[in-house]
């Protein structure tokens, strides 16, 4: 059998499907095969020789611990930024050259897309785990938005939800964009000026709407002028809006802002759709939880009705029997023994006290929220009058018009925030004056509760969680941290914020700012026929 001609190792390296590079002791490229040159974004080998490589020149043992997302135990992953500005991820292995230990040969391959898929899967998994933990809906949707921005490197993400009737829109989650209470207000102003809102098309059609180079369109269109400055703070280009679908119905929308140079690819849209599904699950869970609470309240009413029948009705019946017994004795015409009268009085007195105590307890449990009986403004005024009479505090208030436009759930949360803040002033502030101010401007409600109490040592611009995990608050009180957390959750439920400012000797101010839900148009205009060639592109 004749010997086959041998191929030189140089030809093997030249034809190798992976990148091969020779690195000197200072970490710079000495020699590269064509695949390595292409992976690094160069045109010629000479363009890269002498340039520092991204590789760590240490050999990794095959027995090293394998990472969850690693294919081989001796591979490492690094990032490489090419001269064109693109960033790639390389998986590589390094070996010393036995003939010259100052040189290292590195074989590497591009794993950018693979690792991006890993990160997306991990983001979806983390989000799913997050949904299983308790937390306010606003905080959950903020976390979903943050996961998307961090995983895909987007410029920003917004998550908006619809109310149960599908007529009001609220911004509850965002990442990458500055929080601005008037965003929705200005967005509707743009719509009234003739701007087309892609997210409304996504809600109506129930499918993603993608608009390449959207920022260039908005920036050059005067109808978008109310949002030019705000959207100009973000470095973005293209735009995608994905509906949050629950049981075949759009419950909201996820808006994604792409950085310049990012393409709207199929995999990116799949990832956004998966994360939108996670956000939709969070919205659905919050809705079901609210229904469960409503059902629990109904069950509690039925329980009170049973208690009323089983206890109070029976006790009143016993009082009636006692009265009948005395009536029978009196009807006999004889003298009623004093002992019998005293026994009757004692028994009826005890029964009446029991009935009165039970009735008071039930009345307290059945008492409706004050705002449902009086309206938000009058309920707070009544609370202030009660606080003034009970504590001697000088309670003042100022209310703007349009408070009656608040829905019952929003009004209850505003009332509870205010009541908790007043409770904290009474309990902790050592104040003489308490002031409540409420204003509605455009689509934003601002509630401010301030006092002239002792405040805290040093300026406290906002509450948060201390290093020990306890809630920090005004007057340095730790025992009302749960109340502050509840106040913040009530504000975040509506996409709002709660800030507390306290200074030693100058009192404390609690300020809640809540964007009011905005009314959607009765019908969203359909896309004109001449613009329907690309179903994912909507101009203006």
Q: What characteristics describe this protein?
A:
540 residues, alpha+beta, 5-stranded antiparallel β-sheet, 16 strands
Short structural summary:
With 540 residues, the protein is α+β, with helices and mostly antiparallel strands. The protein has helices spanning 9-15, 34-39, 112-132, 137-152, 183-192, 198-205, 214-219, 225-231, 266-331, 338-366, 370-374, 376-391, 408-429, 481-492; strands at residues 19-23, 29-32, 76-81, 87-97, 100-110, 156-162, 168-175, 209-211, 239-246, 249-257, 394-399, 433-441, 444-451, 497-502, 508-515, 518-519.
Helix content: 40-55%
Strand order, largest beta sheet: 8-9-10-6-7-16
Overall mean confidence score, pLDDT: 77
What percent strand? 15-25%
Q: Strand pairing plus helix content: what structural class?
A: alpha+beta
Element string (H = helix, E = strand): HEEHEEEHHEEHHEHHEEHHHHEHEEHEEE
Report the strand count.
16
Straight-line N-to-C gap: 75 Å
Tell the overall outline. elongated
Rg result: 35 Å
Helix tally equals 14
Low-confidence stretches: 61-72, 458-480, 524-540
The major pleated sheet works out as: 6 strands, antiparallel
């Amino acid at each position: 059998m004749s010997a086959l001609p041998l191929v030189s190792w140089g030809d093997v390296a030249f034809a190798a499907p992976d990148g091969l590079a020779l690195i000197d002791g200072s970490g710079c490229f000495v020699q590269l095969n064509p695949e390595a040159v292409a992976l690094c974004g160069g045109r010629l080998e000479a363009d890269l020789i002498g340039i520092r490589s991204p590789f760590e020149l240490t050999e990794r043992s095959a027995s090293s611990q394998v990472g969850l997302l690693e294919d081989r135990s001796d591979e490492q992953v690094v990032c490489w930024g090419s001269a064109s500005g693109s960033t790639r991820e390389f998986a590589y292995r390094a070996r010393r050259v036995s003939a010259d230990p100052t040189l290292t040969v590195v074989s590497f391959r591009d794993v950018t897309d693979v690792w991006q898929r890993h990160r997306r899967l991990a983001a979806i998994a983390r989000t799913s785990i997050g949904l299983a933990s308790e937390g306010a809906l606003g905080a959950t949707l903020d976390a979903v938005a943050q996961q998307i921005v961090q995983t895909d490197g987007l410029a920003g993400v917004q998550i908006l939800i619809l109310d149960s009737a599908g007529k009001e829109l609220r911004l509850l989650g965002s990442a990458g964009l500055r929080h601005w209470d008037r965003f929705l207000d200005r967005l509707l102003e743009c719509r009234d000026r003739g701007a087309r809102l892609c997210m409304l098309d996504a809600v109506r059609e129930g499918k993603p709407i993608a608009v390449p180079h959207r920022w260039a369109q908005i920036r050059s269109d005067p109808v978008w002028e109310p949002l030019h400055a705000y959207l100009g703070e973000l470095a973005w280009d293209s735009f995608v809006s994905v509906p949050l679908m629950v049981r075949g119905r759009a419950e909201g929308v996820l808006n994604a802002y792409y950085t310049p140079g990012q393409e709207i690819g199929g995999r990116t849209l799949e990832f956004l759709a998966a994360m939108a599904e996670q956000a939709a699950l969070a919205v659905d869970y919050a809705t079901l939880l609210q229904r469960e609470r409503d059902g629990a309240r109904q069950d509690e009413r039925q329980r009170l009705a049973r208690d009323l029948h089983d206890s109070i009705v029976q006790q009143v019946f016993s009082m009636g029997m006692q009265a009948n017994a005395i009536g029978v004795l009196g009807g006999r015409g004889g003298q009623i023994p004093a002992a019998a009268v005293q026994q009757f009085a004692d028994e009826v007195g005890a029964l009446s006290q029991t009935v009165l105590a039970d009735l008071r307890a039930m009345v307290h449990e059945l008492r409706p929220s004050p705002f449902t009986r009086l309206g938000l403004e009058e309920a707070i005024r009544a609370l202030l009058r009660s606080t003034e009479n009970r504590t001697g505090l000088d309670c003042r208030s100022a209310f703007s018009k349009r408070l009656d436009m608040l829905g019952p759930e929003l009004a209850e949360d505003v009332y509870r925030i205010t009541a908790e803040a007043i409770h904290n002033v009474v309990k902790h502030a050592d104040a003489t004056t308490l002031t409540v101010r409420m204003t509605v401007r455009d689509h934003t409600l601002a509630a401010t509760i301030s006092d002239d109490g002792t405040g805290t040592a040093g300026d406290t611009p906002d509450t948060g969680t201390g290093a020990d995990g306890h809630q920090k608050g005004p007057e340095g009180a730790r025992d009302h941290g749960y109340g502050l957390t509840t106040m913040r959750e009530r504000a975040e439920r509506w996409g709002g914020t709660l800030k507390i400012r306290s200074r030693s000797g100058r009192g404390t101010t609690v300020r809640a700012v809540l964007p009011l839900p905005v009314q959607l148009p009765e019908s969203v205009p359909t896309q004109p026929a001449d613009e329907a060639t690309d179903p994912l592109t909507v101009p203006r």
